[in-house]
Amino acid sequence: MSQAKVATYKDSVQAADRLSQAAGPSWDRIDAEAVARMRTQNRFQSGLDIARYTATIMRRDMAAYDGDSSQFTQSLGCWHGFIGQQQMISVKKHFTSTRGKYLYLSGWMIAALRSDFGPLPDQSMHEKTAVASLIEELYTFLRQADARELGVLFHALDSAVKAGNDLKERNLIAQIDQYETHIVPIIADIDAGFGNAEATYLLAKKMIEAGACCIQLENQVADEKQCGHQDGKVTVPHEDFHAKIRAVRYAFLELGVDDGIIVARTDSLGAGLTKQIAKVRVAGDAADQYNSFLDVEEVTPQMLNPGDVVLQQDGKLVRPKRLPSGLFMFRPGSGEDRCVFDCIAALKAGADLLWIETEKPHVGQIGGMVDRIRAVIPTAKLVYNNSPSFNWTLSFRQQLFDEWSAAGTDVSAYSRAELMQPSYDDSPLGLEADRRIQQFQLDAAKNAGVFHHLITLPTYHTAALSTDNLAKAYFGTDGMLGYVAGVQRQEIRQGIACVKHQQMSGSDIGDDHKEYFSGDNALKAAGDDNTMNQFG
User: Fold this and answer.
1) Which of 62, 105, 175, 292 shows the greatest Cβ crowding within 10 Å of its Cβ?
2) CATH no. for residue 248?
């Protein structure tokens, strides 16, 4: 059991019965047990209830990780409530508990799949309200998963009572009392805040009210935001970014989610530009350090052109290099130093977790930066993007090829430029690379401070892959067998509850409600002629 119940099932029935009796004869047809069941099926009555509950879970998991790095957490990105629901149903089915398993809400997938403008790139052009709407939708579907599973238990309880099986009745009541909800934390992407700090605060409130206990915020310029794995990223000085971190914290505190979690993401590793020069107040302050990474050239007053911006650094007059757009350039090769600087500053400004967007999945690279951060803040830990933007197979095979080459191992059987070839799949290099991919999350948790591993847009890809396979079979020579053999038969044999799609969509819950409301007059869908009966 992952959480304490406010009241046992029997206590809830008794409480409803007292209410009914107090109301008098007009409530004679209000069944106390039905009320208790509906309350049990709807434990979370608001998004704020969910945010407070899941924040406690996430804080518990963070503390567990601090004591044992093998206790890292995971999530998959979901672009629809149904996808999130099916993910958590699968987790409970295969692992019995949802502990350590979250959902991730990806701004990329909202842009690509949920915008009224149609498919968009990950540049914060989609409607900001779509973010909070998807959080609400995900939790609506997760709550419905609870109602569906509990409904099955209630029907089994009725059968046990009718049969006079006291032992089974007690066992089922215990299962109801110990029921683990599908409600889990969502790490929700707010991009760069969709505007200034006030805009960030307003959107954060909507997200928290929808149920978000954890908000991820990145240090890009809001109106220049790019996907973390594309070129053209522009960062902001720390003062601007930290104002938004505080805005999110104020939103959490205003709404009573006192232990809400903020993930501070830095894109500095791949961002070579800044829109503004930071205002230095005291030599050596954060702004001065930020500016020290600018790519500059020493100048004299005679060398200046109209409109030039100049700085005094180390007693010298320097001119920052600028693009025709007016954006300022950072020194090449300064990305890792800027990431470390960003992360330490963000934690000191009130962030709880860090996100370093990298260009490849390399434990050594990530761990090297985390070691430097932990030298200042020992409890620092990461949320890490196991991104589909990486070619994982090629990256790990090339890492291993280079490692073996440096160690003097004979790699003459391999062509580094052709390592994606299927002929290498069963080779010693291919098999060892796959083993390292399999161990990546455990290794990164242990050696690179990664508390949470997520895949940003996996269900975007699985939807495309499964649809391609079905379309190829169904519209080809397989015809209907393409669906039956490739989908329905697999659902039946793998025990996928969704094979009973009417039940999954809520028809049984609706039947129960009809019986509560109308008694014997209820016209229910789950009769003998319901074709879902073909699936047992």
Assistant:
1) 105
2) 3.20.20.60
Report yes or no on 256 lying in a domain: yes
Binding residues for Mg(2+): 189
Report yes or no: 178 and 9 within 8 Å, Cβ to Cβ. no
Residues 15 and 33: their CA atoms lie apart, in Å, by: 10
- Identify the bridge partners of residue 316 per DSSP, sorted by sequence position: 313
- Residues 264, 217 contacting (CB under 8 angstroms): yes
Cα gap 327→320, rounded to integer Å = 10
Share of the chain above pLDDT 70, in %: 94
Q: Are 26 and 132 in contact (CB under 8 A)?
A: no
Q: Tell whether 374 is covered by a domain.
A: yes
Distance of CA 59 to the CA centre of its chain: 16
The answer to whether residues 99 and 183 touch, using CB atoms and an 8 Å cutoff, is: no
Name the binding residues: 189
Report CA 342 to chain centroid distance, whole Å.
Answer: 22
Block residue for tokens 């009725």:
158
The side-by-side arrangement of strands in the sheet containing 234-235 is 234-235, 273-274, 328-329
Q: How many domains does the chain have?
A: 1
d(CA 94, CA 200): 38
The helix/strand/coil state of 213 is: coil
Residues recognised as catalytic: 227
CB within 8 Å of 209: residues ≥ 6 apart:
46, 47, 48, 51, 132, 255
With respect to residue 445, please indicate whether it lies within any of the assigned structural domains: yes
Helices vs strands, H then E, count in the chain = 19, 14
Give the chain's length. 536
Domain assignment of residue 365, given as a range: 48-126+184-278+333-408+419-459
Query: Rounded distance, CA 136 to CA 14, Å?
Result: 32
Q: CA torsion sign, 207 to 209 to 212 to 216?
A: positive
Give 132-182 pLDDT, tens digit per residue: 999 999 999 999 999 999 999 999 999 999 999 999 999 999 999 999 999
Minimum mean pLDDT among 143-147, 269-273, 401-405: which range? 269-273
